[in-house]
Amino acid sequence: MTNKIPTVPLAGSERRVVANARKLGQAAPEPTLQVTVLARRRTGAESVSTLATTLGNSAPAARVHLDPAEFAARFGADPADLARIEAFAHTHGIDVVDVKPAERRVLLNGSVGAFSAAFGVRLDDYVDPTGDHSFRGRSGPVHLPADLIDVVEGVFGLDNRPQARTHFRVQPPPPVDPAQSIIAHVANLSYTPPQLAAAYDFPTAGSGHGQCVAIIELGGGYRVSDLHAYFDRLGIAPPVIKSRSVDGARNRPTGDSNSADGEVLLDVEVIGAIAPGATIVVYFAPNTDAGFLNALSSAIHDPVNRPSVVSVSWGGPESSWTGQAMRAMDAVFQDAAALGVTICCAAGDDGSSDQRGLKAENGVLHVDFPASSPFSLACGGTRLESAGTPRSETVWNQGRSGGATGGGVSEVFVQPVWQQAAGVPLSGNPGHQVGRGVPDVAGNADPATGYLIQVDGQQMIIGGTSAVAPLYAALIALCNEQLGRRTGYLNPLLYGLTPEAGAFRDIRSGDNDISGRHGAYPAKAGWDACTGLGSVHGTRLLAALKAG
Fold this sequence. Notes:
The chain has 548 residues and is of the alpha+beta class. It is built from 14 helices and 27 strands.
């Protein structure tokens, strides 16, 4: 008789069953799946967060970011730890597909039955509450042998439930003659990306040449014909756009402009129209926690394209994530800071609840992750009127049906030192916790004053904080070009700017209480939990970065 090896639950790996999902039964043991195991950093490694914070507190001209080889040597996984994970996999009849020491990831392939036995989990098949999608799910923690529990920081991919949602909202436009100039059409109605860049006084001396902007997408796709038609109408040469497959996902446009295609085209067209000289690389991954983590890690550690900025327009309430997933993705964002990569994340489109439907009425407030990571630039939403001088700008809040900017106080991440003098309120939830405040900055996101984009052959007006992340990713690409270097982790520097720098427009009108019942959070003088420091004045930000 074989002695069973004692196992220990992996902290933070606990999963809950999706509310109102219908269980179909235990998953068949034969199908294969891919799982990502995240190893610890090599023992004795200095703290990446300490290095990231040191860089963030330094003047841009004084920052010395690591190159990939330096990073791998200082902060990658110990080969001995990786070998132990590989041996564990082989013991259970699981194949090792790839090992990425710098990223600390081991990619495994095996059967449902083999993984269930190896990690002490039961996997079941479910249908989601809408009845539209089926997924493989689990509840409870992952288990590991005691001699691996300190080596492994996360196990991802056993459960393939959809993890994140897009943060874009569509405004139905009036009929448009396909031959009509986009610029003429949107006058006094909404904006093209170059018009918004002008409204926020982005630098005009460059085009983002020499920069690479990565975009993370968890579904949908783009057609080259859409991009050529869009940029032709704007009178802009199409940028260089590449796509990269992560975990088998690819550029697969659905033909439905209201699907994830809308997200993909919004991201690509906003960045391409504002920074057409930059190379854009779109990383397509499955919409799972494993897919999201692997896409971010692949982009940030890409040795060929070396992005200097990453735009992320997908996310979900902190409560929808496992602790291990949030820790792992936050660690990848720390990697980005060490490598000189700026991360721009959409703050969410469902107000201070960050929930849709009846969940928005339960009185519980949430912030959106990964925007809530202190190592991301969290991008909230405003309504920027297209008429008037100066243009009026208020908090974007059109209620439950029209959406509102996300924002609030994290229940997971402590308040960073650089935010402690900003006037972040206590959480509006019971207990009134002190935490990381979201967002950091804001920009035009109201669909009623949105961005005119072409998706699946249609011209559409789209808003949401999904537009603000690529808007500011493009700005950072322009700034990097002018500076001749990567800026990297911006948050400590932004919060340290004086009002005299004039880098932000303070938004003082509105709130992001989507139901009108929570009372959180109102705009006010200075930082607030709906627009952060305010909207960004591009040329003044560049001047502040040059001044250091």
